[in-house]
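lol forgot to send this yesterday, sorry. struct tokens for the thing we talked abt
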């Protein structure tokens, strides 16, 4: 029985749609085994080669993933070590700051103790303030106090002398007797430091 034109057109349409469906399915998943009958041994060899390549790629990807995991673990360990070191450095920094503060306080105390024994003398002639012995003689003559000058130095262009006395008691005696300079109407004066 012979098919009519419309039937053959329908069959042709149906075939075309089936072919298009297979082609689109092959485009979506090119590695899926085809339903077509294999006729060529060359294509079969190529498929086997593609499978081997794909397996090799998958194996390489697995190795890369494992290596990435190892690197991530190492990175985390390094970060942890860095955090610990930073915390240790911060503790040491705080300890050093505390030590510095204590040392500064001790230095200030020491300076106060030394200054406690200092006096400032102004208006002296050059020969009267040449050295510690001459300054001691001047104090004995003018202030009527025997003191021992440990150290002296000039400030303010040599117009003033800072003298460190041997003890705080000596400084007290000098300060009590500085009024004698006014009584004698001397140009020199003595001050606390």
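and heres what i got for the seq, position by position
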């Amino acid at each position: 029985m012979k098919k009519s034109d419309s039937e053959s057109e329908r069959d042709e349409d149906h075939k075309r749609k089936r072919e298009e469906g297979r082609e689109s399915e092959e485009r979506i998943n090119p590695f899926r085994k085809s339903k077509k009958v294999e006729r060529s041994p060359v294509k079969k060899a190529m498929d086997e080669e593609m499978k081997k390549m794909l397996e090799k790629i998958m194996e390489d990807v697995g190795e890369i993933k494992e290596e990435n995991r190892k690197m991530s673990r190492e990175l985390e360990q390094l970060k942890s070590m860095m955090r610990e070191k930073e915390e240790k450095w911060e503790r040491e920094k705080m300890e050093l700051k505390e030590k510095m503060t204590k040392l500064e306080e001790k230095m200030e105390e020491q300076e106060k103790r030394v200054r406690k024994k200092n006096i400032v003398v102004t208006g002296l002639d050059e020969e009267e303030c040449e050295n510690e012995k001459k300054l001691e003689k001047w104090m004995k003559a003018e202030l009527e106090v025997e003191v021992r000058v440990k150290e002296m130095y000039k400030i303010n262009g040599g117009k003033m002398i800072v003298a460190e006395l041997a003890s705080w008691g000596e400084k007290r005696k000098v300060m009590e007797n500085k009024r004698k300079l006014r009584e004698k109407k001397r140009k020199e004066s003595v001050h606390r430091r």
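The chain has a mean pLDDT of 82. anyway ping me if u want another try
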